[in-house]
């Protein structure tokens, strides 16, 4: 209002400079408001995914059970019937939706951090691939944005390649959440699913496995570049059985977006985490990010730190129906060496010192 009054008074005095100055002030205020709106949209887009990841499955399960006890019980029966009929769909690659993958909300999600995908080599559409994604972080936000949405244009960077991000099979037993995950091309990380995608779904499939899993998430903290990989060889065995190329992938900044309480080995807290990991498949973490309206408060919104996912050079593997332990060890060693090399080649480009070493546990 003051700006408009200033412009009006400038007209009355016949001072052109006053009018110009008033208009500049007006446009700068409009731009500032737009910038704030953009930032809040980015925060909301990230928060909706975090809440979906943490709560959507449980909340929809409770609502479905409650609906059975109401006058709307028929709706619950119909969905439950559909669930039984559709139970095995996730094991066959799910039901991806290009419309969902291209939602504008994912572009706001990308720009919040920001997240980018770096391609170093072409991928042949006549081959299948297993991407090893490192590190896990708390939620694998880089993996989700880069491979389950088109925000970073994965389909344009790797034309003809269909990415499938693999996650806990238990997520696909949750009503509504399973549909949401499948729409982005997310599938269960189990042998049946991977066998199907690599043997009965043609070529050009890329399965992204967060190799370190729950164990790696327990050591996720800002400033630490460590991967749980030394004894993780199952993905190599699967690659050899199907002749799928191994692709090392490192996400710089994945560990920077959340802070968590790290329990020491032997403590009661670590015992609880490992017990959950053993029997349920995930390890509960005590973590925090920033608040919804302020970066100075604690909350579930991750900190806006850059995440850059670098996709390395494929390691060509032979197809061995019954790979020996020697075969598995050989290609696992090649994979570890390639991952460390990828990290060393790109670390200084993304803010790490030349002396930084990737810790392989």
TrEMBL record:
The keyword Ribonucleoprotein does not apply. It comes from the Eukaryota. Pfam families: DAGAT (PF03982). CDD domains: LPLAT_MGAT-like. Pathway: Glycerolipid metabolism; triacylglycerol biosynthesis; Lipid metabolism. It catalyses: 2-(9Z-octadecenoyl)-glycerol + (9Z)-octadecenoyl-CoA = 1,2-di-(9Z-octadecenoyl)-sn-glycerol + CoA; all-trans-retinol + an acyl-CoA = an all-trans-retinyl ester + CoA; an acyl-CoA + a 1,2-diacyl-sn-glycerol = a triacyl-sn-glycerol + CoA; all-trans-retinol + hexadecanoyl-CoA = all-trans-retinyl hexadecanoate + CoA. It is a multi-pass membrane protein. Its main location: cytoplasm. The chain crosses the membrane at residues 43-67. Keywords: Acyltransferase, Cytoplasm, Endoplasmic reticulum, Glycerol metabolism, Lipid biosynthesis, Lipid droplet, Lipid metabolism, Membrane, Transferase, Transmembrane, Transmembrane helix. It is found in: Cytoplasm, Perinuclear region; Endoplasmic reticulum membrane; Lipid droplet. One of its GO terms (cellular component) is perinuclear endoplasmic reticulum membrane. Its EC number is 2.3.1.-. Belongs to the diacylglycerol acyltransferase family. This is Acyltransferase. It comes from Balaenoptera musculus (Blue whale). The lineage of its organism: Eukaryota, Metazoa, Chordata, Craniata, Vertebrata.
């Amino acid at each position: 209002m003051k700006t408009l009054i200033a412009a009006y008074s400038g007209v009355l005095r016949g001072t052109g400079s006053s009018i110009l100055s008033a208009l500049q002030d007006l446009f700068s205020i409009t731009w500032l408001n737009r910038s704030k709106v953009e930032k809040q949209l980015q925060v909301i887009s990230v928060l909706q995914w975090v809440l979906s990841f943490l709560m959507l499955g449980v909340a929809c399960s409770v609502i479905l059970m409650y609906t059975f006890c109401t006058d709307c019980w028929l709706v619950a029966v119909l969905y439950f019937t559909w669930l039984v009929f559709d139970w095995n769909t996730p094991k066959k690659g799910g039901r991806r939706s290009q419309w969902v993958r291209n939602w504008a909300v994912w572009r706001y999600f990308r720009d919040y951090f920001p997240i980018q995908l770096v391609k170093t080599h072409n991928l042949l559409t006549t081959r299948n691939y297993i991407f090893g994604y490192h590190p896990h972080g708390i939620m694998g936000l880089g993996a989700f944005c880069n491979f389950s949405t088109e925000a970073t244009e994965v389909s344009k960077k790797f034309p003809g390649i269909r990415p499938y991000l693999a996650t806990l099979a238990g997520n696909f037993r949750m009503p509504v959440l399973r549909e949401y995950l499948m729409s982005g091309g997310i599938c269960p990380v189990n042998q049946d699913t991977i066998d199907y995608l690599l043997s009965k779904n043609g070529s050009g499939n890329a399965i992204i496995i967060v190799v370190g899993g729950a164990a790696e998430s327990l050591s996720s903290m800002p400033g630490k570049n460590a991967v749980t990989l030394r004894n993780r060889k199952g993905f190599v065995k699967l690659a050899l059985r199907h002749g799928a190329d191994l692709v090392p992938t490192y996400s710089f900044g994945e560990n920077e977006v959340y802070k968590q309480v790290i329990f020491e080995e032997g403590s009661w807290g670590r015992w609880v985490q490992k017990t959950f990991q053993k029997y349920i498949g995930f390890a509960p973490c005590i973590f925090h990010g920033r608040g919804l309206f302020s970066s100075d408060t604690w909350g579930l919104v991750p900190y806006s730190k850059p995440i850059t996912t670098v996709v390395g050079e494929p390691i060509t593997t032979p197809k061995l129906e019954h790979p020996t332990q020697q075969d598995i060890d050989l290609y696992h060693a090649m994979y570890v060496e390639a991952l460390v090399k990828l990290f060393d080649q790109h670390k200084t480009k993304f803010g790490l010192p030349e002396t930084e070493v990737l810790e392989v546990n």
